[in-house]
Design brief:
about 30% strand, 3-stranded antiparallel sheet, alpha+beta
Amino acid sequence: MFYHLFKEDGDEMVGNPGSVFAAFNREEGKLIVFSENGDDVGDFQHRTHGVLVALDYARKNNAAFSVVGAQVCCVMGQVSAMGASYGEAAVRALIKYMRLERDAEREQSLQ
């Protein structure tokens, strides 16, 4: 999921979304490496940083969370997404939210 999140944000990506990948953030001029297994790289596991980024973005955009059975629902603007945790729901909603914004910008530029 985080591979797609950063890709939607326009970051340049390299690697395998299923194991180890890196995103180059042009604004910060940094290469951020993500890994399912911390032994693959000498950096941090993506679930920590990625979830914190998504939760912070959700907070800044007044997202609402609710628990539905064993799932968490995150509502951000016009989109909602379910996940097994608050972090996963936030990441899924953020991806949808960013796609919706990108599509609206494209549509507006065609008019």
